[in-house]
Design goal:
By secondary structure, the chain is mainly beta. The protein has one helix at residues 37-42, and strands at residues 8-17, 23-27, 32-35, 50-57, 68-75. The protein has a single domain (8-78), classed as Nucleic acid-binding proteins (OB fold (Dihydrolipoamide Acetyltransferase, E2P), Beta Barrel). The model has no long low-confidence stretch (mean pLDDT 90).
């Protein structure tokens, strides 16, 4: 399978929302994740929220800064230890 399109599930912690409505989060491993405005609006995403996110590698020209982009998220039921104190 081509790793460019391979989906993964990662637990993410939303760090902040942008002025235009998109958001940025971080994985347990410290990797950045982009959430589109459509996704943040649909899920009413707020800073500090923890989700299980289906992610893809970000576009090649953006991957050095933001490794992943979220395609779908759901509220996490089992919070990873690294996020439990947030």
């Amino acid at each position: 399978m081509n790793t460019e399109v391979k989906k993964q599930v990662k637990q993410i912690l939303v760090e902040y929302l942008t002025d235009v409505g998109s958001a940025f989060a971080i994985t347990e491993e410290g990797e950045q994740v982009y959430l589109s405005k459509r996704l943040t609006k649909k899920m009413d995403v707020q800073p500090g929220d923890i989700f299980d996110a289906h992610v893809l590698l970000n576009y090649a020209d953006k991957r050095d800064m933001i490794k992943y982009r979220a395609m779908r998220v759901k509220v996490a039921t089992n919070i990873a230890p690294i996020f439990q104190d947030t």
